Amino acid sequence: MDAGQAIVEIMKAEGVSTVFGLPGGHVLKVYDGIYKTPGIEHVLVRHEQHAASMAAAYAQLTGEPGICLVTAGPGATNLLTGITEAWVGCWPIIAICGRSGTLVAHKGANQEVDTHLVFRPVAKWTARIDRAEAVVDMVRRAFVVARSGRPGPVVLDIPPDVLGGEVNFDPATYIPVGKPDRPRADPQSITHAAQALAGARKPLIVAGGGAVMSGASEALVALAERLGAPVITTLSGRGSIPDSHPLCAGGLGGHRNDLSKQLLADADVVLSIGSRWEQMECNWRPGFVPSPGATFIQSDIYAEELGRAIVPNITVIGDARLVLEDLAAALGKQAPTVDRASVEAQMRRVLDNLEDSLDENDPGTEGQIHPIHVIRAVDRVFPADKITGFDVGFIAQQMAGAFPLARTAGPRSVISPSSFYGMGFVAAGLPAAKVVYPGRAAVCYVGDGSFQLIMNVMPTAVEHKLPVTWIVLNDMGLGSIYDIQKHNFGDRILATEFSFAPDFAAVARACGCYGEQVTDPAETEAAVRRALEANAAGQPAVLDMMIARERTVAAREFFPLEGEASGWSPKPLS
Ligand SMILES: Cc1ncc(C[n+]2csc(CCOP(=O)(O)OP(=O)(O)O)c2C)c(N)n1
Ligand SMILES: [Mg+2]
Question: How far is ligand 1, taken at its centre, from the CA of residue 479, in Å?
Fold first, then answer.
């Protein structure tokens, strides 16, 4: 068979059932392989960046590599931003890209560019494959690299003559890579960490995206219960402990709340599992990171991440699930030092107050639509097991910070940006939710500015019958940046307000989606219901919510807008 067909056979053997892509002449041998191979679907995007976003969303929701297939030159370079997001977010992607033919290379051939070099700083591995005989081994290796250790993107660059070359390959004898072995931590570091946790009066666990990628949820909840330790999650760790669990305290940094803020300040031992404590998560300012007197235990699968932002007292290198299981085993049957029931009761009291204060914030059906009002409507109308996407922009992001609102459904139910934070990345990836979970509803909060970057995702969702709902939080501007100009640049506003905006609902309808603009707060819930009904009937939906530009208290604290410590230049901890 030819190498193009062999690539498809390997994908199938590795469990791939969907490829996200956009063809060009250079990669038609692979497309032909997909055509001839039952069991592999192709989702045709309208911009290659969306293929990377969908592949990354697929990876977040499954833990498995998302696959992109694009042509040479611009097809490949259009992937760059989404691939970078996956690199920063540690999500596995395998991108198969075309390139100019071997015989005409380096002469300015059609669409020729050194793709493997373009992607080098933002991929775990990039390779130019020059011989058909190498293709099988290299594609197999791509699965090894993308899945193992710290997961991430792999980019393969293959000329059409190589894709058309004969390979000696029998799919029946191919041994799939499968899931990689999980690295177990050194028993000494487990003992050391367990001793610190056993002596803690106020233990706290902070779970990041690594906990989700490792499928560590059950072990996380078991250890938290064993210790009587509350759990705070980063945005990409959201769901690793279900929102409804009494030890779930919500988010970190810009997504924090009165409860998680207090717990982090008070904790005497903080166990961080699969989190890098990035700037977008904790700003690296006192009050947003463990207290100076606390013992900080950091565990990660990737040794180089340890101490990247905050120097730990104890390090544990290993797979999150195994680390959590081994810590629970090391703690054994010795009596917990913490009374879990009283911790949970205290947390409940703060959470009740929090819900009340969110109530007070929400002006209900008066005036402009308040963002909290939108979350409430979605929480009420959408099923509890929905997939939730949180795109970029303060308002969209603060949806995640409105815990205990914006309820999510447990692990692998959230699509989040990485700290690369590309506008539109999550909203473009959203249709992948229906590829992974055809039977679950999927909804995404996205800013009006961000939505305008990726609106051409709608035809793909319609064509492939991936009925999701985008809730556009429309403040007629790049509100996050507008606020910085307003508060820190003497009110000099430039390029952050839209004097013209498209009619998103009309554009949605023109693309085959259900579309509705909502201006009256009293209509919010009914509109959300209509969007969900459209989804249930197989139609994607867009709700253009004309909202007030409001932030949660946490957002104001995280990005102070006035004075010395303003926004984008936080002082690192000394
Ligand atoms: C691709 C990209 N360009 C620019 C930025 C910088 N940026 C961050 S938030 C933001 C404004 C987003 O506007 P919108 O989506 O309307 O959300 P809002 O802040 O108004 O809630 C911008 C421009 C970014 N994160 N990504
Ligand atoms: Mg906006």
Answer: 8
